[in-house]
Design brief:
This protein is mainly alpha-helical and 53 residues long. The chain has a domain of 35 residues. 30% of the residues lie in helices and 0% in strands. The longest helix has 10 residues.
Length: 53
């Protein structure tokens, strides 16, 4: 099995910022803290994001 990954950040100093095309490309999105998911889902609420359990 082989995976293709992208690493992006949410902060203004991140080398690569998360963009809508990254979300549309991804099958899964991993984040380290619940607050990060809150920021992603708030910023991209126009997209159909899967909920987390």
């Amino acid at each position: 099995m082989q995976f293709t990954i992208r690493s992006v950040g949410l902060g203004p100093k991140s080398d690569r910022q998360l963009r809508e095309k990254d979300i549309n490309w991804a099958d899964l999105i991993f984040f380290m803290e619940q607050g990060q998911w809150t920021r992603i889902s708030g910023k991209y609420r126009n997209l159909e994001l899967r909920s987390i359990e």
